[in-house]
Amino acid sequence: MYLIKCRPALYAVNYKKEDYMSGNKTSFNFKDDKDFIKLSRQKSFVSIVLTILELFFYFGFISLIAFNKQFLSSMLTERITVGIPIAVGVIVMSWILTGIYVYWANNTYDVLVKKVKDKVEG
């Protein structure tokens, strides 16, 4: 396995065992490959957007705890405060964002990875 360093991440390229054992190392220029560039940019974009959303929800909730305790402690029903459904909402939102990433990875990212892998393996 050879590691190829690229700006967004570190990518591993698997060569066929026969090629590796015989010393026939295939070179592939990732820097100029359109599919690899597209893959790299899309992964970065999706990861950054989902991370920002998650941080917004989490730190928004923490900010409410820090600066507006009266609102969170007000009673929604006889036994439930406003803070409980908001906290549950933050957790559920994390699951939803994870589901969005998994859906994107399975339907878009894996297809692009397969394209690049096919080019590398020839």
Summary keywords:
122 residues, elongated, mainly alpha, single chain, two-stranded antiparallel sheet, 2 strands, 69% helix
Give a topology summary.
Blueprint: E1 2-5, E2 10-13, H1 17-22, H2 34-67, H3 69-73, H4 83-121
Antiparallel strand pairs: 1-2
Helix pairs in contact: 2-4
Describe this structure in words.
The protein contains 4 helices and 2 strands. It has a two-stranded antiparallel ribbon with strand order 1-2. The protein is mainly α and 122 residues long. The relative contact order is 0.13. The two termini are 16 Å apart. It has one domain (33-121). It has helices at 17-22, 34-67, 69-73, 83-121, and strands at 2-5, 10-13.
Summarize the structure.
The protein has 122 residues and is mainly α.
Specify the overall morphology. Answer: elongated
Count of discrete domains? 1
Low-pLDDT parts are none
Taken as a percent bin, the fraction of beta residues is 5-15%
